[in-house]
Amino acid sequence: MENPNNPNSKSSSEVQGPQSLIVRDAMMTAYSLTGSLSAASTLCSTLLDEELPEQYQASAVLTQLHHMAMTRPKH
Q: What pTM did the predictor assign?
């Protein structure tokens, strides 16, 4: 169990914070493109680049999704 008074102890949520925010942004962007959580999840998984280190995959997917969104016709 972690000691909350120990400044050197970090919870897993603090360590995963920035990465989980990128994953959330990627999913929300994919959802806005597809209109469905299932389709958004499928889209994100098809955009994964297995050759990239794990810590960069979510960011790469988000970049690709932003590119897709910017090249779509505006209404």
A: 0.72
